[in-house]
Amino acid sequence: MFVDSHCHLNFPELADNLPDILERMKQNDVRYALVVSVNLPAWQGLMDMVAPHDNLFASVGVHPDYQDTTEPTVEQLIALSQSPKVVALGETGLDYFRLVEPLSWQRDRFRTHIRASRETGLPLIIHTRAASEDTLRIMKEEGAAQYGGVMHCFTESWEVAQAAMEMNFYISLSGIVTFKNAKDLQEVARKVPLDRLLIETDSPYLAPVPHRGKMNDPSKVMHVAEKIAELRGISVAEVAQATTDNFFNLFNKIKVDIKVI
């Protein structure tokens, strides 16, 4: 059994094909998926999508790339997180790749999410790109380690991974780890302790080999697990078991029977 710890099924590229995607997930033994929020205007639509499905869960938060959107408050995030389907805050974090300074609004937004995590007890889903130093600094300053979370779609160095894990965070690998030129990330995949590892698609983006360049969806997450197993010299079943256990240990608001996988 596999779990996709990060996808965007509510994005237009995937939303219209949800029945087919759910069927493909079933065929590939991908039993659960976390549909991750990127902005508040689209959040209710995300919730309406996951509500009918016992195997889909949600987060609430505003992505750092969304500059001109509704700015969340701590109180608002706390209120929205009360839904039984909401199991995490984010995705949040810092992204200096596409946007340029001044980015104080991005750092303030990140702090807001961490403060909401500390109030609600929910883990954080953190996005960081070209901003690892500030990301780790703000995590430390705001006490993100209290309830931890996940460094999603990880592409940073082993040193950044170590620093994040020291703050109670998991490392999530996407289809990027299957790319031939991702040698540094593949080394991280070998080194991360199995009990700190998650897998994801970040779909509709970053389809793994052998589907690279095509539309991605949660049914393809097993290819990430297969590559990790290859890199570590262990079975796919071991990766599946560990990443499934880790998912439910981290997002512990979810209560499901996972005894038989």
Structural overview:
It is a single chain. This protein is of the alpha/beta class and 261 residues long. It has one domain: TIM Barrel. Helices cover 39% and strands 17% of the residues. The chain contains 10 helices and 8 strands. The protein has an 8-stranded parallel sheet with strand order 1-2-3-4-5-6-7-8. Strand 3, helix 4 and strand 4 form a beta-alpha-beta unit. The longest helix is centred in the middle third of the chain and has 17 residues.
Give a quick rundown of the structure.
With 261 residues, this protein is an alpha/beta fold.
Helix-strand blueprint:
Layout: E1 2-7, H1 12-15, H2 18-27, E2 30-35, H3 43-50, E3 56-60, H4 74-80, E4 86-95, H5 104-120, E5 124-129, H6 132-142, E6 149-151, H7 158-166, E7 169-173, H8 183-191, E8 197-199, H9 222-232, H10 236-250
Parallel strand pairs: 1-2, 2-3, 3-4, 4-5, 5-6, 6-7, 7-8
Helix pairs in contact: 4-5, 5-6, 9-10
Any key phrases for this structure?
alpha/beta, 261 residues, 8 strands, TIM Barrel
- Please state the CA-atom Rg, rounded to the nearest Å: 17 Å
Total strand segments:
8
What is the typical, i.e. mean, pLDDT? 96
Q: What is the string of SSEs from the N terminus onward?
A: EHHEHEHEHEHEHEHEHH
For the record, the CATH class is Alpha Beta
- What class, by secondary structure content? alpha/beta
**Largest sheet: number of strands, sense, barrel closure:** 8 strands, parallel
Query: Which range best describes the helical content: under 10%, 10-25%, 25-40%, 40-55%, 55-70% or over 70%?
Result: 25-40%
Overall domain count: 1
Q: Number of helical segments?
A: 10
CATH architecture: Alpha-Beta Barrel
Strand residues, percent: 15-25%
Stated plainly, the CATH topology is called: TIM Barrel
CATH superfamily: Metal-dependent hydrolases
Provide the spatial order of strands within the biggest beta sheet.
1-2-3-4-5-6-7-8
The end-to-end span amounts to 5 Å
The 3D shape can be described as globular
Low-confidence stretches: none
